[in-house]
Write a structure and sequence with these properties.
Length: 107
């Protein structure tokens, strides 16, 4: 299994955790939603569950539940700024299609 973080994403995660004052890392998952079927879920991780896998890169941790790994294997998490917009971006080799708004995808 391979999940990677760009340096830009790692810096943003570290910045947000420092601002928050606590947290192990960023939790990434998927849920059924949107027009294409699946959507990414991003939240802070304050603890680890029994089925969690930890990926560490650039000094920060990304926590993913084992049940989401088949869909997320190979994902690169990036953080970009375009004009006044800034957001995490997910480059997922498993995604076969995404909806027009970019909020959901299918595998």
């Amino acid at each position: 299994m391979s999940i990677t973080l760009t340096e830009s994403a790692a810096k943003q995660i570290a910045k947000q955790l420092a601002k928050r004052g606590r947290g192990l890392g960023l939790r990434l998952g998927v849920k059924k939603a949107g027009c294409s079927g699946l959507a990414y879920v991003v939240d802070y991780a304050d603890d680890l569950g029994g089925d969690d896998q930890v990926f560490e890169e650039h000094g920060v941790k990304l926590i993913i539940n084992a049940s989401d790994l088949p869909v997320l294997d190979g994902v690169q998490v990036d953080y970009t700024r375009e004009g006044i917009s800034e957001a995490f971006r997910f480059h997922n080799p498993n995604a076969r299609a995404s909806c027009g708004c970019g909020e959901s995808f299918t595998v």
